[in-house]
Amino acid sequence: MPSVIAEDSVGIVNSQIYSHTQPFTLQCGTTLPSYELVYETYGALNENKSNAILICHALSGHHHAAGYHSMDEHKPGWWDTCIGPNKPIDTNLFYVVSVNNLGGCHGSTGPLTLDPETQKFYGPSFPSVLVRDWVVSQSHLADHLGIHKFAAIVGGSLGGMQALQWTIDFPERVHAALLIACAAKLSAQNIAFNEIARQAITTDPNFFAGRYVENSVKPSQGLMLARMIGHVTYLSDDGMRDRFGRELKSGDLSSGGGVEFQVESYLHYQGRAFSKHFDANTYVLMTKALDYFDPARETGDDLVATLAPVKAKFLVLSFSSDWRFPVDRSREIVNALIEARKNVAAAEIESDQGHDSFLLPIERYVRILRSYLIRVAGEVGK
Amino acid sequence: MPSVIAEDSVGIVNSQIYSHTQPFTLQCGTTLPSYELVYETYGALNENKSNAILICHALSGHHHAAGYHSMDEHKPGWWDTCIGPNKPIDTNLFYVVSVNNLGGCHGSTGPLTLDPETQKFYGPSFPSVLVRDWVVSQSHLADHLGIHKFAAIVGGSLGGMQALQWTIDFPERVHAALLIACAAKLSAQNIAFNEIARQAITTDPNFFAGRYVENSVKPSQGLMLARMIGHVTYLSDDGMRDRFGRELKSGDLSSGGGVEFQVESYLHYQGRAFSKHFDANTYVLMTKALDYFDPARETGDDLVATLAPVKAKFLVLSFSSDWRFPVDRSREIVNALIEARKNVAAAEIESDQGHDSFLLPIERYVRILRSYLIRVAGEVGK
Questions:
Q1: CA B92 to CA A15: how far, in whole Å?
Q2: For residue B171, what is the DSSP state?
Q3: How far is A186 from A179, CA to CA, in rounded Å?
Q4: Does B199 contact A225 at a Cβ distance shorter than 8 Å?
Q5: A232: which chain B residues are within 8 Å (Cβ-Cβ)?
Q6: Would the CB atoms of A27 and B256 count as touching at under 8 Å?
Q7: Chain-centre distance for alpha carbon B241
């Protein structure tokens, strides 16, 4: 709970709901009769409606990116380090829109929503959602807000994939795309870790083929395991060594009695906490969207050709110790953008915090973000 | 099934049992009233009993390292690429002893053994076993075989840790230690992956707090998950890219329908196969032995001091793409050995096969192994 809200916080924020009352046909062919997106905004939209930034969230993220919902809230939004007055994503300059994706579990239509046709929870019958579907649904929200073109679309990890897809599907609607710690497609290793997480969830005896809500249980063990796997891959070997080393929480290594390492205790805590507030069907759905993202597939794996129609300018950032989305994956995007003769700036940030770096206030990182966006503000008009 | 046994195979082999009929007190303080070790030997012991090589196995290994148990056996022993006449561990020169560790599930006394005191399966009550205990029990087997000093003790991964512990605890009994893809202690990341595997096993509803045998079930899902996690960490990102890429076994990425990637199918197969022949309590026990191994802890984290009494010569090998036991971990051992003024040779082998490289017939690797051991044969007398 914040006793005093800091000057560079967006303060107390309220979530809003966008209701799309028209049918929406997804890439998989299924039509949702309607849907809702929960979102937040920070800062003010200017008269030309040219200063909007869209924040796209990652696997476990949601719309609450900055500020507090109330004075009782324990922690601010998930990207509060970067969003606020005078912060890199400066709410004095920009109107920031942050949305919970379709299929999410924080208020947008998803597995926890009642299917209007059956009056049962969608649960596992919620249709497959692809990154492209998210982008289209976000464009509907933009229409609703009167935003024709975003000054910037910003995302880390899976969020960066959405920003990239935006530039391909709506070239006229993106001034700048900021792709942070992402990739043009997942590697086999990435898919493997996601599949292990899904296996952990779907083989939990409380999963009930996704119908756990009706059975008044939660596949908490499976979700906990999934999160522990994810969490280890978001950190780096060096970062974990510095933070935990081989410190013991209890026990004696020389006899092997009652040993618990600090790192074990930490992962249990993180896994348990996550399993309390996240929905298992959403986790499965979002990891699949990650796995299936592969925009260059349609042009025979030619990313340069895929990017040909793109009009946005790009900032591509990656982190030295990120092994889930290594700097090489960002370089592939940068190289393809250069070959496609696009406007691209890129930086590889030194950090030992792994994939999680994109959420942390690393000095060079936030300085680059801020500088780039100040230039964008100049280009689009405050 | 081998239709013809190759000339460089040790051929049909039989397992033997060593029965230790005296009580054996483990590091944890518990005393086993007796124990058995199952082992195999390949080649002939010379008159001086100076040409014996001990093979120490890794997490999921066992005593059957080379040859076939029968003409019906589908695959040869797990290190058949390296053990045999004219192979790197040359049975024309050496008498090779390969043992299943105490606590194992392939014939040595372990959780699947009846506790003579209670006449129940040990199961989860099998005492905690440390690397040091394995080394002592292996020394009892050596006594039984009349081997005072091994020409070489060879191990990859957890096997390398046993070889290292041998040189510390029995300096007079090891001529050469070959440490392959190992480390002087696990990192926080390593421990984290092991703990996730243990969680997967122990939270399987068929685990029954380790009493699954009495309940006539197996925690197969948990073991399968544990193996999938392990398997991904034994491969490299590049190796998986080359082998699986984003190839689909079924489905359509552009709609997200019925998608299964080849890498998912492969991991399911590997996990299921492993869960059929491995014991869950043994997996938990062995991962803990890995986690707890830390010989330098007794000298205040001073590996040089720990190695001071060592008399063996060393060959230390590591693989460029091994991120579970990276080359840096081997360098720590090499540097400590140099500073402790020991005889050490080392090589870092280029390979994109990750930690699993130590099991593969990589040309430079097997050439170095063979050359080194031919020199050892000259030193100890054939």
A1: 76
A2: G
A3: 15
A4: yes
A5: 189, 192-193, 196
A6: yes
A7: 26
- Please determine, for residue A2, whether its predicted confidence score (pLDDT) is greater than 70: no
Domain A16-185+293-380 has CATH 3.90.550.10: no
Residue B180 C-alpha, separation from nearest chain A C-alpha, in angstroms: 20
- Please indicate whether, in this complex, the C-beta atoms of B232 and A297 are within 8 angstroms of each other: no
Using an 8 Å CB-CB cutoff, list chain B residues near A195. Answer: 228, 261, 263-264, 267
From residue B139, how far is each of A176, A334, B133, B282, B325 by CA, in Å?
67, 58, 10, 21, 27
Question: Measured between CB atoms, which of A128, A240, A267 is closest to B187?
Answer: A240
Q: In chain A, which ranges are E strands?
A: 16-20, 24-25, 31-32, 35-42, 52-56, 83-84, 89-90, 95-99, 150-156, 174-180, 248-252, 257-261, 313-319, 344-349
In chain B, the N- to C-terminal Cα span, in Å, equals 33
Contact B245 A188 (CB under 8 A): yes
Among candidate residues A173, A184, A176, A133, the one with its CA nearest the CA of residue A153: A176
CA separation, residue A149 to residues A38, A94, A173, A357, B284 (Å): 20, 13, 4, 29, 55
Catalytic residue list contains A80: no
The residue of A185, A253, A270 whose CB has the most chain B CBs within 10 angstroms, and thus the best one to mutate to test that interface, is A253
Q: Model pTM greater than 0.80?
A: yes
Report CB contact under 8 Å: A228, B257: no
Q: Is the pLDDT of residue A26 over 60?
A: yes
Q: Tell me whether residue B57 is one of the annotated catalytic residues.
A: no
Q: In what order do the strands lie in the sheet with B344-349?
A: B16-20, B35-42, B95-99, B52-56, B150-156, B174-180, B313-319, B344-349
Evaluate whether B68 touches B352 at the Cβ level (below 8 Å). Answer: no
Q: Considering CB atoms only, which of B188, B267, B294 is closest to A253? A: B294
Domain range annotation of chain B: 16-185+294-380, 193-286
Cβ atoms of residues B235 and B246 within 8 Å: no
Catalytic annotation on A204? Answer: no
CATH code of the domain occupying A193-286: 1.10.1740.110
Q: Are A78 and A65 in contact (CB under 8 A)?
A: yes
- Does the domain spanning B16-185+294-380 belong to CATH 3.40.309.10? no
d(CA B236, CA A207): 31
What are the chain A neighbours of B329 within 8 Å (beta carbons)? none
Residues of chain B neighbouring A130 (CB-CB closer than 8 A): 254-256
Below-70 pLDDT ranges, chain B: 1-3, 382
The number of C-alpha atoms within 13 Å of B342 and in the hemisphere containing its C-beta is 29
| CA gap A113, B211 in Å, rounded | 41
Contact state of A192 with B264 under an 8 Å Cβ cutoff: yes
CB-CB under 8 Å, A256 with B289? yes
Share of chain B above pLDDT 90, in %: 96
How many Cα atoms within 13 Å fall on the side-chain side of residue B317?
29
Mutation target vs A (from B25, B102, B232; most A CBs, 10 A cutoff): B232
Cα gap A59→A120, rounded to integer Å: 25
Query: Which whole-number Å values give the CA distances from B33 to A159, B20, B26, B132, in the listed order?
Result: 60, 9, 11, 18
Residue B26, both tokens: 């483990």
In this prediction the ipTM stands at: 0.95
Q: How far apart are alpha carbons A212 and B33 in whole angstroms?
A: 48
pLDDT at residue number B5: 85
Residue A211 has pLDDT above 70, yes or no: yes
| DSSP state for residue B9 in the 8-state scheme | S
- Chain B hits for A245, CB-CB cut-off 8 Å, are 188
* Strand duo B344-349 + B313-319: pairing: parallel
Q: Which of B133, B279, B322, B356 is catalytic?
A: B322
Count CA atoms closer than 13 A to A24's CA, side-chain side. Answer: 23
Q: Which of B203, B202, B190 minimizes the C-alpha distance to B230?
A: B190
